[in-house]
Amino acid sequence: MSAETLTPEEEDRVLAAEFVLGLLSAGQRRAFEDRLNRDPALRATVAAWTEDFTALTDDMEEVRAPAHVWDAIRAEAFGETRGRTFLRRLSLGPLVLGTAAACLVAWLAVDRGWLGPDQGETARPEMQAMIAAEDETVRYAAAYDADSADLTVTRQGVDAAAGRAHELWLIAPGGAAPVSVLVWNAGSAQDSRTVTLPEALRGALPGATLAISDEPQGGSPTGAPTGAVLATGTVVGA
Amino acid sequence: MATLEEIEDLIARVALGDRRAFSRLYALTSAKLMGVALRILNSREEAEETVQETFVKVWRNADRYKAGGYSPMTWLITIARNAAIDRLRARRAAAEDLTEAETLADGTPGPEALAVASAERARLITCLEELPEDRASAVRGAYLRGETYAELAARHDVPLNTMRTWLRRSLLKLKDCLSR
Fold first, then answer.
1. Number of DSSP helices (H) and strands (E) in chain A, helices first
2. Where does chain B have alpha helices with state H?
3. C-alpha–C-alpha distance, residues B39 and B33, integer Å
4. Less packed terminus of chain B by CB within 10 Å, N or C?
């Protein structure tokens, strides 16, 4: 290393630049990332360098990406090829053609894990699912916190039809029988609900399918889905 | 032309799983990211794969955008740049030679490019110009080609430690200039 001694501030300034440029060794980078997670000032230094170096791309011409790139992105991001075949296997009752599509949201460290570091103390849900119809009319977002076993589900789309209800089912991987989790009656004001999963279901969550079916007011009278499956999603993360 | 506020708003909606917002974000920004990836990788196919990888990451991680403190285009371009550099390095590791890096254009903008550059860019370029030419070129090589200290040292024909000392000193100078 250089014979010159830098002040701690200078050292951090240089380290942050080397980090952004990708000049650190794997070991140095891991150590630096550990510090980044704890040190907002260091994150600000990294952000400032990133803004500055990004100027090197200002003169790069725009180039239109061909259509198949967007198709590939949709397929990968929304998991569009999965939902339908899966539901046929499940035989969850009559399927309204073209409504069910699984859509995945996974927690991945972005890139080198530093673009938008974790939010310190606010725990992020470990698992998530987006339960959405193809046309986005019926749409629920689910997040699961393994520490508390709380599953929070938020309605983001349309309400159930008048006199009917939306019921949420959990189907464990491997095609287990659907288990009823929550019911939204038409006209219910409460968009977001939290339920603590019973012990037996907790282990079944990773990779499970969540599905919304159309049911009579108050939910299915039989304990199994009776109406059309309106939307599905797969639990990803953990 | 989309405003940065609009792009920021789209990222916020993508974080909530809004597919329409995602599609609009792609329409507005993918050409720029494709341009960046193409410039770094010099390969259409790999640039397309980089754009795909970038947007899948954006879809999955848009909720982390706010925490980073980046302007929206910087965030998107940085994800694309990092993905492209990873590919470039993998390619170099496979080829195990530096000749390719040396034949790529340096990316130094001509006077014309400078004329249309943003104030931000002008600032960085101006500050890079205050550095000795070979140091400025090393900074560009690291950012645009993902060159390591070893590769930079080989290209400039100096010992690795010398290169590191040079460049670290140059980065400090650069920061002083950028902070003025």
1. 6, 9
2. 4-15, 19-41, 44-61, 65-68, 72-95, 99-103, 111-116, 119-129, 133-145, 149-156, 160-179
3. 10
4. N
H or E element at residue A180 = strand A179-185
Chain A / chain B CB contacts < 8 angstroms: 185
Q: Cα angle at B19 between B82 and A86, to 5 degrees? A: 100
**CA–CA dist B8, A14 (Å, integer):** 29
Which one, of B77, B93, B66, lies nearest residue B147 by Cα?
B93
Spatial separation of the C-alpha atoms in residues A59 and A80, rounded to whole Å = 36
Q: Does the distance separating the beta carbons of A44 and B69 come in below 8 Å? A: yes
The minimum CA-CA distance between A225 and chain B, rounded to whole Å, is 26
Question: What's the pLDDT tens digit per position in A69-126?
Answer: 999 999 999 885 443 334 434 433 333 322 222 222 222 223 333 443 333 333 445 6
SS3 A116: coil
Enumerate residues 97 to 156 of chain B having a beta carbon within 8 A of any beta carbon in chain A. 107, 109, 113, 116-118, 120-121, 123-125, 139-140, 142-144, 146, 148-149
Q: Does the pTM of the predicted model rise above 0.85? A: no
Q: Which residues contact A60 (CB under 8 A, 6 or more apart)?
A: B32, B35, B36, B39
Tell me how far apart the alpha carbons of residues A41 and A129 are, in angstroms, rounded to a whole number. Answer: 34
Using a CB-CB cut-off of 8 Å, the residues of chain B touching A4 are 165, 169
CB A233 within 8 A of CB A132: yes
Question: What digits encode the pLDDT tens for the residues B70-83?
Answer: 889 999 999 999 99
Helix (H) or strand (E) holding A37: helix A26-38
**Bridge-partner residues for A131, per DSSP?**
A140
For A58-178, where are the E strands, in sequence order? 127-132, 139-145, 150-155, 164-171
